[in-house]
Design brief:
The complex is a heterodimer. Chain A has a single domain, classed as Rossmann fold (3-Layer(aba) Sandwich), CATH 3.40.50. Chain A is built from twelve helices and 13 strands. Chain A has helices spanning 36-51, 66-69, 88-98, 110-114, 118-127, 171-178, 191-203, 229-235, 285-298, 315-319, 331-334, 338-347, and strands spanning 58-62, 79-82, 103-109, 131-137, 140-141, 147-148, 182-187, 207-213, 236-238, 240-245, 260-264, 270-275, 301-308. The two termini of chain B are 30 Å apart. In chain B, the strands form five sheets. In chain B, strands 10, 11, 12, 13, 14, 15, 16 and 22 form an eight-stranded mixed β-sheet that branches. Chains A and B meet through β2, α3, α5, α11 and α12 of A and β9, α7, α9, α11 and β18 of B.
């Protein structure tokens, strides 16, 4: 009779920091059911959890719009700043200057980036500020009820019947040309690809610009839209298969160097990009932009990582800052001694 | 004369008679250490060094002196004037009348000499033959080109060296101490021996020519005094930069704009020299932004993340910062914004001075916003208020604006040397991880201490309860999104209370009160120099004793209202068209005080002068 049964519940799954996925969740979403942005939030949670990012080491930044509300719906233990329309890049820049030891994740939309925010967006890219910049791209303004944005394709139709006749701004081509060092496009419905890209983004040092097509179920998911789930399912064309092996997972995965680019990230992890398109070369900017421009002509929506450069110094590197965050340097390091003031005064005599 | 007060405007009071401070002297009645010199040249001709040497020579002779550069918004070829005032009484405001003209710009020479008062003196290029226009002015023609060519064989340097010739002529005519002139020349070109020698020989050429050829027949001369011992000469922008460095600024962003650029340019030089650690790494980041929107966005991002952050701009930049200013106010984020004011609206006159951003900054942004403004009235306060601004912005968790102006910021002023800050930096209410453990969490926008200032945490604080969500949308005291009427109203009322706290923390006004006078003056910023002199004019020439309150910040301290209440008539003196400070005072004052307020305005782009203020007060007083 002397049998004891141990009925311990299975220990909750944890990551390398001992945190549960719960520790990466945020508030309940108030976006529409089925909104692509919610899927992106889920993938961010997965990527941060799997990569073992300490939530308190992350700053989430956003502008204005449906996309920019989403940081409230993931990673509630991270510091968040929902700023003003189109100006998140400057806020992110300031925050990172104050504390360059933090990770920064910016969430923007196609209106917030490609229209009102274009001025700051291009300068962010040019500086190669070390942060992840995600555009949740649905081709329309959601919060103001469905007007076209500047990423809408020519010929795309609104529910009201209005047809867009201005060419779209390709944020990926732009990012590559202006100096971002990790540029890709994905689709909120492509879980596997988006997760791998986000994990690689976390490992990258420099500006990561990810344009994620994220259908707006309320204003831009109908027949005639080029940003709908259906359209994406029919036209998404991966330029390469994205695989990611984090530095802390000691797994040797074979790959064929003839068909796969192996990119060693600065933290020692590996981004494996298996060529699906003829001529694909993620280390060459000209090729990347050419292929993007060709895809516009054929009507396919190219996804995947288009360009990676792990060598280029970031804006923070160029400033040659002290190791400690500037914001909390003690007075002894920020207020020069009295002798310095005396010296300055004597120069003005 | 292009720099004269063709238009001086005062509210509702016509000018009875154009002001004048004529000093009709002859060679027999000497006027010592009390006159103004104006050098008229074209910009880009390199006259700045020569003017600086004149200024420093007077300063070296112990004579109270001030220098003003009236320059065009242009790189080369347009008229520019430099005015130096020597004042034995220590008056350093702009003097309305020019006593000695150095006319080197052919295009404006006729206009320049016609604007002089009888008895003034004019030194000019001989070929201009200005004597024909004014028999009543002491004329000193000088063959500048010939003298320059003789000492400077290299023709491409002559344009610059020519300026030194007038330094020599002026030195001789005004009986300047040449050892001080030589010292100023040697200091100016301290690192370039050859340049120093060449320039000094040009000064000598002018000096000798004047001694041999010109017969002095004007009354103006200089004598050594002892009124500048221990003092420094510095411009307000440089002073502000020094202040920012000693305030421990760590993040500086900017977009170039006249007249504020030199705040950051000076700061770059200072920080590179004094704020780089032995390993070569910087304890600061200075970023030239893509525009003023980005500049202030970076300031707020940095302030949010814990840095002492700042930007410097002028009116047009302030306009662009409007949206972010409201975010900073509502989300309660520190950041310091220097506004070196220039003449607007729109591009206005970018190289001329004004105090016309008062109202726009006080309420800048949409919705119910109001902002803390500091109003430095001297170069020393440009330095001190930089420190005060950083302490206040972190203490109050709201953007703080420091309003200087072109006259204060870009012109040279004498000052007592600056004092090393005694107080440690006030970093405000910031909770650490240990605090959070002890407290069991915090509510970001809750008034815990009764001063309406909440506690904040900084990104990276290692505690699961440290994070909060910063937003410009409606939020409750836990920083959660809300559209509930009571929660929104509660935050707005607390913000209003916080402004009342600010009232008690900002620099108090400086009051000079005799207790005998019915008439009070109120001024601020760079108007102070003229007001000090104006009070003496009112007393000595009209027998009118006045009291004087100099505002140093908004919101106004309670002392401002006590002052207004204790006088019958109060004149608010300011350099804008719409009586902006008076309007702000009215908004803050009970009816009984409002009826006492009168206005004296000056807004032609030139720094206000004492005579203009005196006349405006005299007319309104019916004296």
């Amino acid at each position: 009779m002397a049998t004891t049964t141990v009925t311990n519940a299975p220990a909750p799954k944890t990551n390398r920091l001992g945190l549960q996925v719960l520790d990466y969740r945020g508030g309940k979403t108030t976006l529409c059911a089925g909104c692509g942005h919610n899927s992106i939030s889920e993938r961010i949670i997965d990527a941060m959890y799997e990569m073992g990012v300490q939530p308190e080491r992350l700053m989430k930044l956003s502008g204005i719009g449906c996309s920019s509300k989403s940081p409230a719906y993931f990673m509630g233990r991270s510091f968040s700043f929902n700023s003003v329309h189109g100006r998140m890049p400057s806020v992110a820049t300031g925050a990172l200057l104050s504390n360059h030891t933090m990770m920064a994740l910016g969430v923007s939309g196609d209106g917030d980036t490609a229209s009102i925010g274009m001025g700051q967006f291009v300068h962010l890219l040019r500086r190669n500020l070390p942060m992840i910049y995600i555009i949740e791209d649905n081709g329309v303004y959601g919060l103001t009820k469905g007007q076209f944005s500047a990423t809408a394709d020519v010929g795309s139709k609104l529910k009201t019947g209005v047809i867009n006749d201005l060419p779209p701004i390709d944020t990926c081509s732009l990012a590559i040309q202006l100096g971002a060092t990790f540029v890709g496009r994905s689709f909120s419905g492509d879980k596997k690809q988006l997760l791998a890209m986000l994990k690689a983004a976390i490992a990258h040092k420099g500006t990561v610009m990810l344009d994620v097509i994220s259908p707006c179920v309320t204003f831009n998911d109908h027949e005639g839209s080029t940003k709908s789930y259906k359209y994406m399912q029919e036209h998404e064309e991966a330029i390469a298969e994205v695989g990611f092996v984090p530095s802390f997972e000691d797994i040797a995965v074979d790959y064929d160097p003839g068909t796969t680019y192996n990119v060693t990230m600065h933290d020692g992890s590996h981004l494996r990009l298996r060529k699906l398109h003829e001529g694909y070369n993620p280390t060459d900017r000209v090729t990347a932009v050419t292929q993007l421009m060709q895809s516009h002509a054929t009507g396919e929506v190219l996804t995947g990582v288009f360009y990676v450069n792990t060598e280029k110094p970031t804006f923070i590197d160029q400033l040659n800052l002290v190791d400690a965050p500037l914001g909390t340097l003690p007075q002894e390091r920020t207020r020069p001694a009295k002798a310095v003031l005396d010296e300055i005064m004597s120069k003005h005599r | 004369m292009a720099t004269g007060d063709a238009v001086l405007s005062m509210t509702s009071v016509p000018i009875a008679q154009p002001g004048s401070e004529m000093q009709q002297g002859t060679a027999t009645t000497r006027i010592v250490n009390d006159f103004s010199i104006q050098v008229a040249t074209v910009n880009g001709s390199g006259s700045q060094s020569a003017n600086s040497i004149l200024l420093k020579s007077l300063f070296g002779m112990g004579i109270p002196v001030s220098g003003k550069n009236l320059f065009p918004s242009n790189i080369a070829g347009l008229p520019t004037w430099y005015t130096i005032r020597a004042s034995k009484d220590g008056y350093v405001a702009r003097k309305k009348d020019i006593d000695i003209l150095v006319a080197l710009n052919a295009e404006t020479a006729k206009e320049d000499i016609l604007s002089l008062h009888p008895g003034a003196a004019a030194i000019y290029e001989a070929s201009l033959d200005l004597k024909q226009y004014r028999e009543d002015v002491s004329c000193y023609p000088v063959p500048f080109d010939k003298l320059t060519a003789a000492v400077c064989p290299e023709s491409k340097l002559r344009k610059l060296v020519r300026n030194m010739v007038y330094v020599g002529v002026v030195a001789k005519l005004l009986e300047m101490d040449v050892t001080e002139v030589e010292r100023a020349v040697r200091n100016q070109f301290a690192k370039k021996q050859k340049a120093a020698d060449l320039n000094w020989s040009a000064v000598n050429a002018g000096y000798e020519y004047a001694g041999e050829t010109l017969t002095k027949h004007d009354p103006y001369c200089l004598e050594r005094m002892n009124a500048t011992a221990g003092k420094i000469i510095i411009d307000g922008n440089d002073a502000a930069a020094v202040g920012c460095m000693f305030a421990g600024v760590t993040v500086v962003t900017w977009y170039p704009i006249t007249p504020s650029s030199s705040v950051v340019e000076n700061l770059i030089d200072l920080m590179k020299r004094y704020r780089v650690e032995p390993d070569g790494k910087a304890t600061f980041a200075i970023v030239q932004a893509e525009d003023e929107l980005a500049a202030v966005g970076m300031v707020l991002g940095a302030g949010w993340a814990g840095a002492r952050s700042m930007t410097a701009t002028s009116g047009p930049g302030i306009s662009l910062m409007a949206e972010f200013a409201g975010l900073g106010y509502f989300a309660e984020i520190p950041g310091v914004i220097f506004d070196v004011q220039r003449t607007g609206p729109s591009t206005g006159m970018p190289t001329r001075t004004s105090q016309a951003d008062i109202l726009s900054i006080a309420f800048i942004s949409h919705g119910d916003t109001k902002h803390v403004m500091l109003l430095p009235g001297s170069v020393k306060e440009c330095y001190e208020f930089a420190g005060a601004a950083f302490d206040l912005t972190e203490r109050l968790q709201t953007p703080v604006f420091v309003l200087s102006d072109l006259d204060l910021g870009m012109n040279n002023w004498m000052s007592e040397p600056f004092d090393y800050p005694e107080k440690p930096l006030d970093r405000g209410k910031v909770l650490t991880a240990e605090d959070l453990t002890r407290l069991g969490g915090f509510a970001r926008y809750k008034d815990v201490d009764g001063d309406a200032i909440p506690y904040r945490t900084l990104p990276g604080t290692d505690h699961p309860l440290a994070a909060y969500f910063t937003r410009g949308s409606g939020h409750n005291d836990k920083a959660l999104y809300t559209e509930k009427p009571n929660e929104y109203q509660e935050i707005m009322e607390r913000l209003a209370s916080k402004f009342e706290t600010a009232r008690t923390l900002v620099p108090a006004p400086v009051v000079v009160q005799t207790g005998k006078s019915e008439v009070g003056l109120i001024g601020f910023g760079s108007s102070d120099f003229a007001i000090v002199e104006c009070r003496d004019q009112l007393k000595n020439e009209y027998g009118l004793e006045t009291d004087y309150l100099r505002l140093r910040a908004y919101p106004f301290s309670p002392a401002v209202h006590e002052y207004i209440a204790s006088h019958e008539r109060v004149y608010v003196i300011e350099q804008n068209r719409d009586a902006q400070m008076l309007s702000l005072l009215k908004l803050d004052s009970p009816a009984a005080e409002i009826t006492k307020l009168h206005s004296v305005l000056h807004f032609n782009g030139l720094p206000v002068d004492a005579r203009s203020v005196t006349e405006a007060v005299v007319v309104q007083e019916g004296l």
